[in-house]
Amino acid sequence: MGHAATDPERFEQIKQPVAALHRWNSTLMVVLSFGVLLVAWHIGATLWPSRSFPAPLNVLQTFISETASGDLPYHLAITLWRVAASFFLAMTIGSVIGVLLGNHSRADQFFNPWLILFLNVPALVIIVLAYIWFGLNEAAAIGAVAVNKIPNVVVTIREGTRALDPRYAEMAKVYRLGALDRLRHIMLPQLQPYIAAASRSGVALIWKIVLVVELLGRSNGVGFQINLFFQLFDVAAILAYTLAFVAVMLFIELVVVQPLEHTSTRWRRRAA
Amino acid sequence: MLQDLRFEVVQNEFACILGPSGCGKTTTLRILLGLEHDYRGTIQLPGLAQARMAAVFQEPTLLPWRTVEQNVRLAMPEDQRNANLDALFNQLGLTKMRSFYPSELSLGLARRAAIARALAIEPDILLLDEPFVSLDEATAQQLRYLLMTVWSERPTTALMVTHNLQEAIMLSDRVIVLSDRPAHVIGTFDIRLPRQYRNEQVRADLLRSFNEKFAGIRNAP
Questions:
Q1: What number is the ipTM of this complex?
Q2: Keywords in UniProt for this one (chain A) (predicted)?
Q3: Which residues of A touch B61 (CB under 8 A)?
Q4: Is the CB of residue B132 less than 8 Å from the CB of residue B164?
């Protein structure tokens, strides 16, 4: 029995270089893929020169000048803050509601039609109503984005709650675990994949809605700027802002989300 | 499922509930653990309602996302979480596996970890639900001796559910025999001889006298 248990460690040592090689390969592939896209874009822009289809170098120049003037970082930061605020608001409220509905089937039956309703109300309607009812202010903007995302979070977390293993809850009851311990050690680890799924799709959805919110009722942020450049017909600036924002989101994904997932699923991999 | 079920266990006694599969042994334990509420009757636990209970379930039920040691400490009351567990882990042969995740353990080792968790909280009552089921006989036997050793160092009232008569005779002070459904107590079989004197010969004798006493029921192996 003794060595059977030490085997995984040895296995892990063999696996590591292979995994590193694999990671290196996939990074190379991403770089290559983006490179080909850039070249294709450049060729296209050279063949059909037009103000509405700037070459990558033009976009880069605009990006540099906008960054130097401080405009781009400012608006980017504002948008990022809105994304973060509505993300945490939506995840917190959505998770709480999802857990409640997943645990109480009667409440779930009652509120399910509401959920379907909110899932199907267009984001634009919620945004417009929020601005009309609560005024053109920051709280209305962030609230509207969160309300758009909450139903998705509820649905995902509700599924996760239904899939909770009752044996662990019974173990917790027998050993009289406190509420905080149950949350930290029993519930959250089981919900982790569902929370991760909700966050992933959440960030992508939220930042798109944030741009609409900014376009409609704010006087700063990437969405506001894009609307401005639309009126000036400045495609290079529109692309510069969009790409800058996508780059930031990619960076967050690679530097924050993936390592976080890596640590929180450590126990799963060691079993391999 | 259960009917007229009545038994008692004396303090610091190791009792076994023996009965055919599916007769409601596990349900009895679940009632005692407060996990089942659909019954009529009374349970009296030692001390107040606050008797500290520990359970070893049929499956180890360790949290897969916590290490063996974290699993054990998590079950302990918060003010005792930093207690020294070296002796317990050492006795159960788990010293090297403290930082392992449950999925890295064999079933036998996971069962040991579950026993460690149950004993670490120094329970007033220890409930065991077929803790040696689905192990090969050698491992099961090794684990029975281990359980005996750690239990005799930390004696507590213990109630084990099993369908294995040999196991019951080896471990317990009293065997409570249940009938088929609806389960009720057919009789009890007291073993006064201390465990360390129960060699194979003695166990065979005990088995014979048990079979004489319960000649009517032939469900035990």
A1: 0.82
A2: Cell membrane, Membrane, Transmembrane, Transmembrane helix, Transport
A3: 167-168, 170-171
A4: yes
